[in-house]
Design goal:
The protein has 55 residues and is of the alpha+beta class. It has a domain of 38 residues. The chain has a two-stranded antiparallel ribbon. β1 and β2 form a beta hairpin.
Length: 55
């Protein structure tokens, strides 16, 4: 994750980490196991670059 603004505090999350917010407060946490991310971590040559990554 990356900050969208420069005048606010920022908390980076891990790949696969999900947080559900209600009224601005976190109410539920989950960590998913994304097989593609695990393979890419083991072999960076497998990493896919998308248009969103290039923006």
């Amino acid at each position: 994750t990356e900050p969208l603004t420069h005048n606010e505090s920022w908390t980076a999350y891990q790949p696969g980490e999900m947080i559900l917010f209600q009224h601005g407060k976190p109410i539920k946490y989950a960590l998913t196991r994304v097989e593609r991310l695990i393979r890419e971590a083991d072999n960076p040559l497998l990493k896919r670059i998308t248009k969103a990554d290039q923006y």
